[in-house]
What does this fold into?
Amino acid sequence: MIPGLPRSGWLRAATLLYLLAFFLFLFLPLAVVALFAFNDAPYPAPPWRGFTLDWFLGNEGAGRTGLFHDSVLLGSIWTSCVVALWVTALSVLVGTANAFLLERMRFRGKGVLGMLMLTPLVIPGVILGISILAFASRVADLYSDLSGSDSDFLRPGLPLVVLGQFSYIAAIATLTISARLRRFDRDLEDAALNLGASYGAVLWHITLPYLGPALIGSAAIAFLMSFEDFNTTLMLVGADAPLTIMMYGRMREGATPVLNAVSLFLMVASAALALLLMRRSWKRTAA
Amino acid sequence: MSDGAAGAAGYRRLVLALLLAPALLWLLLLIILPHLDLALLSLRERAGPGRYVASLAQYRNFLREPLYWHVFARTAALSVLATALTLLVAFPVAWSIAKLARGRRRALLMLLCLIPFWVSETVRTLGWMILLRESGVLPALLVHLGLTAQPLELLYHDATILVGLVYTSLLFMIVPLVGSLESLDNSLIEAAYDLGGSGWSILRQIVIPHAAPGITAGCIVVFMLTLGNYLTPTLLGGKNSLWFTEQIYTQFITRFNWEQGAAFGFLLLALSTAMVWLGLKLSRQRFGEVMRRA
It folds into this structure.
């Protein structure tokens, strides 16, 4: 509230109304997804036919396959987790190396390199996907011409999905981690070095603990972005579909409320992850 | 002494090489070489089985086939429209968060804006499909209220695509807007008001110029994400979506015509880059700063 300004009751009411409408708009889609996970009907559509847990617990014998018995859906969640873990590990490692490179090293062409590291963020995901697909298959063709054997690694499949997602998530990790490293007080390192600590010990006991929150934060962001990636994955996916691709396929066909069940599961999981992170950062600011 | 200095220099060089290696591998193998390859792919034409010649045929096809450039222009126009709508919807919210709310309430509002975006776009789109399709919640509600006799099909219209695009873009507009509005000194607004400025003139002459960096950053990011979106247009627009990313998918994956798909990819990339560049020029900002802000 800007104290010096007179605000009429009319304006105040309009603002409040607008905010209410806005948040209704924001939460309505999520609310219906959650609600229809419990509707006792074969399709996620009104009218309300009563409460059921079939779309979580039902097995094929009951005529309804619930989330916990839908092995295809569970398999795709697992696939997404494996991909996301790889992408997270790679992105945080490379992001940390990049942060030290950009903030601590002096070399020619650093400005250009720093700029290049941002470009993956302005390339549409679909194009990252097709360019990596085309390049990988060219390399694979070359390899099979030379060696006579085929390299599955470079054909559409999970390794390419990991590389495709990593190609832009690494840029996000680089930004987050270098931002924190930039604010670090280097006198702390100099003090430790003067007191006789080795470079390794300084890195391990002083610099990395300071970077800790940024590392955890960027790992969480990387995991979430990888789990939710659609555009890049769509172009690189092989036989094993991660969850977003699987859901997309089923949504086009018109699926049962089991998709609502898995969505609710995702909402709860991502909310839990987010709250955990926020509690950490609140504690830190409080301390 | 000089031995030690030489050792330290060697050590530094080793560290530099070790730190450079992952960055160069990443950028070279996953960004630069694939895009060069894609460029070469888009500049050739199949002349026979396994034989290719350099040509501009793929780009010529794009210009000659009305469907292709029509979809391209349509995607660009709808993306601009979606960006403008997102700015309009997000601005009052960002203003409320930055200037009207305080302390805990501000944190709560910001959190409420963030929550839907922790959930994947697939889930949010599923929600819109349940709300809008013919057998969905809103058509049923309209019939129930007696506003329509039959349930309407609210999916598969351009307006539906726009609603979906604005919805998924909101956060990327709100965050930079709040950032730039927060730094605006309230006393400037008060002074302008005391000097007799109307709400509209204060907005135009003080608030918008001050928030310009945030507005640009938000618009650039939203435009890019909208242009490159695939999920929302195809699911909410169905067969009528005619979105350019879908054309790329069709050429690359369905028809296996990689040459044509590569050319489409470059056209989309060129449009996206041109708009980013234009946005930066218009607001006289630098790329790095905008990315950090966003």
The domain at 76-255 of chain A is CATH 1.10.3720.10 (MetI-like fold).
